[in-house]
Amino acid sequence: MSHLTNCRLTGISIGILILNAIAINPVTAAQLVSVIDAHPERLHQRSTTKSGLGLDIGLQPVIVRDYSQKSSKNPIAIQPGAIANPNKTAGIGISTRVGTLGIGVDVAKSITPQFNGRLGFNFGSINLNRTDSGINYDSQLNLSSIQLVGDYYPSTSSSFHITGGLVAQNNRFSVTSQPNASGTYTIDGNSYQSSAVGTLNGEYKYGNSIAPYLGIGIGKSTNEGLSFNADLGVMFTSSPKVTLNASNPTFNNNPTTRTQLDNQVRQTENDLKGFNVYPVLSVGISYGF
After folding, report:
1. What does the pLDDT look like over 135-162, one tens digit per residue?
2. What are the structural domain ranges in the chain?
3. Which terminus of the chain is less hemmed in, N or C, by CB atoms within 10 Å?
4. How far is CA 76 from CA 11, 17, 25, 68, in A?
């Protein structure tokens, strides 16, 4: 067998060795190539011991580099981006918030680099004093809602977002009347002593139990670690529906005074027609992982 044939066989054997290393362990192949590139004289010495002919055929770097560039199924370890980043985040964030919807907790999931989906729950209560249609009330705003919204980030380098979605809400005012300074109520233009009426108890409930939401905000809770968030927007709740009853059953069930109570309800609903949206403002802290 000629010296030239021996050299060719040696080159083929080295190529097979490298390809096998790639199939078994890409890192081993990278190390083998590094050794050959760094010390080509060793390979040259081995191949020219008997024949005196060099093996400078460029086989080892050409095979490995072509293989790494052309193989889409098994890219080797030294190829940039071939191995998944072990520190890559899960794209999930948990937030706590406080605002006009009460105290809230939500979970966000990154769908794309520019879009997050968010599911949250809000609850709480606020005590207020209000006057509607000439009647003073002690009222409590009871807050309860579940929101499913999406946050769109126009720029991946900014936390500013536009938010839209739906809020299933059961926010309502529970009201208890207080007589005026003379101890009377004025109901549908008629004055009654508080002893004849008792107290007036009512409820104001927003018309849309499923309310569309639109807003803007800052913060991206799916970013890794702690971050600040704030949202400003409106729920399209429709104007409130009102119920009103007297604690004295005689007054409440008498056809004349019942009609007057119903007229008072319509007056109050008419006064509240302009309150067909609910303002939403919240601030909070998020943690992403």
Report:
1. 889 999 999 999 999 999 999 999 999 9
2. 3-70, 92-288
3. N
4. 21, 15, 8, 6
